[in-house]
Amino acid sequence: MGPPSDLAAWIAGITTRSGIETERAAAAFAQLLPRDTVLALEGNLGVGKTTFVRGLVRGFGVRGNITSPSFALLNVHEGDRQIFHVDAYRLKDPASFDELLIWDVAQSPWNVVIEWPEKVASRLPKGLWKIKAAILADGGHHFQLTSNVA
User: Fold this and answer.
1) What residue spans define the domains of the chain?
2) pLDDT at 81
3) pTM for this structure?
4) What sign does the dihedral 66-19-32-71 (CA atoms) show?
5) Which of 56, 73, 81, 136 is least surrounded, with the fewest CB atoms within 10 Å of its CB?
6) What's domain 7-147's superfamily in CATH?
């Protein structure tokens, strides 16, 4: 069976057993994510958020090295869409998100994908999509679309 490519599967939640499976699932999810939408990725350290983003970004046609923006705070990828990958973990306060100037440079079609969205929740637009990620007792990684789906 291939990666889940319908919203119902993501709402029910999907489980992956490897980084490669996570990337394939996320690449399939890229086809479901509306353009000009924020995707918030929630979950503890090590649950596979950056691996998910790597697959998602590849799903939009981006090749090359796709890494975590943990120290840079923001990576911008150009493919079928302009993807802004934000790691908000080290942001001191929600206003720091504004200093990234994403809304000043975003050109449709775009997506903002943000890890640790709770750190800047007050700065994120309404209507964002949210995926919760977790590690299961058996070591699998679980991803569930939890809000604002059409």
Assistant:
1) 7-147
2) 94
3) 0.91
4) negative
5) 136
6) P-loop containing nucleotide triphosphate hydrolases (3.40.50.300)
